[in-house]
Structures are given as C-alpha cells and as structure tokens.
UniProtKB/TrEMBL annotation:
It holds the Pfam family HATPase_c. Its EC number is 2.7.13.3. The keyword Transmembrane applies. This is histidine kinase. The chain crosses the membrane at residues 83-102, 114-134, 146-168. The keyword Magnesium does not apply. Residues 312-420 form the Histidine kinase domain. It catalyses: ATP + protein L-histidine = ADP + protein N-phospho-L-histidine. SMART domains: HATPase_c.
Length: 421
C-alpha cells in the first residue's frame, strides 16, 4: 500500500470518529457533525492524500456508523438504513462538488486569501438542502429552514477558515523560530571557522620561518664543507616544507574566500548583549548535553555595536567553554562584567569552578597547552582555545588578557581598544 493511500485511510478513520461529534438540528435525524470540518481543514493544510476518496470513505463510514448505533439502540428497528440514507446522500453530493471544486476551481485561487473558502459555503448549503429535501420534502423550503441551513454552512466554513488561519500562523511562527535557530547556529559555526582561520594564518608564519631556517642550514652546511648527503638532506627538508606551505596556503585561501563571500552577503555586525545572549543559548546546549547546570549572569554597562562580531564571539565562547569544561561539579555560574574605561572596553569573565593549578597557570595561553584529558580515551585537548583568545585580543582588538585562579574559581580580565571593536 502506497503512502498516499494509507494516509487517506487513516484520515478517513479519524473523520468517521469526528462524525460522531454532532448536534441535532430541526429533528434528531438531521445532524451537523465535525467530520466536514476535519476533512476540509485537512484538505487545506496537508498534502499527499486523495480528497475525493477521503470524502467518500468518510461519508460511507459515518452512514454505516449511524445505522449501527441506531440499530443497537433499537430506535428505528429495521428502518435504520432508510433513516440514515439522506445523510449518505449529503456526503455523496458533497464529495461530487468537492471533486469539481478541487479539479477546476481551487488550483486557480488557492493563493488568494478568501477565494478558496467562499464556494464551500454554497457546497455545504447545497448538500444540506438535498438532505433536508429527502427528509421533509417540500416543507424543507420554508424561509426558517433555508436560512438555518445557510447559517450552518456559513458558520461551519467560517470555523474551517479560522482553524486554517490559526494553523498557518502557527506554522509561520515555527518556521521563523527554526530560521532564527539556524541563523544562530550559523553564526557560531562561522565564529569557530574564524578561529581556525586565525590559527592557520599564525601557523603559516611558522611554516615560512621553518622553511627559511632549513634553507639557511643547507647554506651553512655547504659552506662548511659537510658531506653532500647532509647538505642534500637539509635542502630536501626545505623543499618539503615549501610544498607543505603551498598546500597550506591553498586551504587558507579557500577558507578566506568562503568567509569573505559570507561577509559580503551580511555586512552588518552585532550588539554585545545580542552576542552574549546567543552564546548563553549555544553554550547552554553543550552544558545540557553534559548534564551540567550553567547560569550566566551578564552585567555590562554599555551595549556597544561591533563589526568584528565573529572574533568577539570566539573570545567569549572560548572563555565560557573553558569555565564549563573546567567545572568538576554539576553546576557552574559564569559572571560576565563589562564597562568602558577611557579608550578601552574592560571585561571580566569569572566562574565558581575548581580553578587552575599554579603549575598550569603560566602556560594556559601557550599554543598546544591543555589541562583537559579524557582518561577513558587518552585524548588530550588541542590547547588552542585560550591561545587563540589571547592572540585575537592582542592582534585584532589591541588589548591584553590576564588570568587569576584559585580553588574558588577562575577570573579572566581583558581589554579591547574601542577604536578596534
């Protein structure tokens, strides 16, 4: 059974159940149910089902259910089939008119706000006229009864329109929230990509220096008359480093092109408090994944605007991650304070973790230094986070960073030049 047919059968079953929710009108046999409301709401908000088959199966199911209930209660005895027959005719006509509506009318007007719903009032009214005619004959054409079934048709379609609008609005809110979440994740991703780019640029200088040193070594060995195998070895090292440098620069340039294209699409920056709010959510998800409760308190006097938001996101993110990962307990509190001091912005990021040992403290800003070890896997952290933070604060923001730590927690203090933000 294909997916479209199975969905139609499931919806038919739900519609039959909805048909049992009804009120009697004029007489106990003439009932207004929620089956039509359910079917038409589904028609407007869902895809991949057969609307005509849904209408037919629902009408037949409601009819058979009514017959079964009437027979069980012995209200009509053997006449229960005949008593419920006008309702089957109502669903038959409704199905035919919906088939015509869906085939020739709805595709032309479905993008308009009210046009798809107005003909449904006529369809509902016409189907009720047929059922009323079969039940009461010419007496059904009294002004009171005609006005009554027209009002029923209007109210039922109005209810359908209202439910569809509520659903569309709700779906729009969900999509907007989803887009916002994706945008937040994208900002964090680009921020982390910028971190790698900063590190690649820094390492490019090291590769250049290594290549120069190895070539100087080759020159020195040759001038001092060392064996040819040693001079060739030094030259080979220089050549290999040069090849590594070329591949390295290709990767670096590729990342720069990607980030430049993104920056050209979005030249806007961010406000400080928006960045910190974004990081509270992002790092909070990491804390939740590790079953750690994280409270972030922000006390910043000035909500300045920066176009270097990716770099500043990296700075705060790494400091917050450092506090989170260094915490041995199940909860950690991070306090971020900021104020303007002359031509600098001053920040203090502190936590109530276990602190950093005195032996480790002097080396935390050195590349490759890490105190984070996974004793289960033996994996050691890259030790790049705080080194990158120090590098960005010094080179990109013209500031400095310092750290203090004790068994009561760790505090990072750093400055950013206002002209560089």
């Amino acid at each position: 059974m294909n997916k479209k047919l199975s969905r139609t059968l499931l919806l038919s079953f739900i519609a039959i159940l909805a048909g049992q929710l009804n009120i009697s009108f004029y007489t106990s046999e003439f009932r207004i149910s929620l089956a039509i409301v359910f079917i038409l709401v589904v028609f407007f908000i869902m895809d991949s089902f057969y609307i005509s088959l849904l209408m037919f199966l629902s009408g037949l199911g409601v009819y058979l259910t009514r017959v079964l209930v009437a027979y069980t209660q012995r209200n009509y005895g053997g006449n229960s089939w005949e008593v419920a027959f006008p309702e089957l005719c109502f669903y038959t006509l409704f199905t035919l008119l919906i088939w015509i509506y869906n085939r020739w009318y709805y595709p032309q007007v479905k993008e308009r706000p009210l046009a798809p719903f107005l003909p449904l009032v006529v369809i509902d009214y016409s189907s009720n006229v047929l059922e009323l005619l079969l039940r009461f004959g010419r007496e059904s054409f009294t002004l009171e009864r005609q006005f009554g079934i027209f009002l029923i048709a209007f109210l039922r379609i109005f209810l359908i329109w209202l439910l569809v609008q509520l659903f569309v609005h709700y779906r729009s809110l969900l999509m907007r929230q989803e887009h916002e979440d994706r945008y937040k994740r994208l900002l964090i991703f680009i921020s982390r990509l910028n971190e790698e780019l900063v590190w690649l640029r820094k390492n490019t200088e090291m590769i250049e220096n290594t290549m120069s040193t190895s070539y100087l070594l080759y020159d020195h060995l040759r001038e001092q008359g060392f064996a040819k195998e040693y001079t060739e070895m030094a030259l080979d090292i220089s050549r290999d480093v040069h090849e590594i440098k070329k591949e390295y620069l290709l990767i670096l340039r590729g990342l720069e092109v990607v980030l430049e294209s993104e920056n050209n699409m979005d030249d806007e920056g961010m406000y400080l408090l928006d960045m910190l709010s974004l990081l509270r959510d992002s790092v909070g998800r990491i804390a939740d994944a590790g079953n750690t409760r994280m409270d972030v308190i922000v006390e910043c006097e000035e909500n300045f605007y920066t176009t270097k938001h990716y770099l500043l996101l990296s700075v705060f993110r790494n400091l917050m991650i450092n506090s989170l990962e260094a915490a041995k307990k199940k909860s950690v509190q991070i306090v971020i304070k900021g104020e303007r001091r002359g031509e600098y912005y001053w920040f203090k990021v502190s936590d109530n973790g276990n602190g950093i040992s005195e032996e480790a403290l002097p080396g935390i800003f050195l590349p490759g230094f890490s105190t984070k070890i996974n004793y289960e896997t033996g994996e050691v952290g890259r030790g790049l986070g705080l080194s990158l933070v120090s590098n960005m604060i010094n080179k990109d923001f013209g500031g400095v960073i310092e750290v203090e730590s004790s068994e009561r927690g760790t505090t990072f203090e750093f400055t950013l030049k206002t002209s560089e933000v």
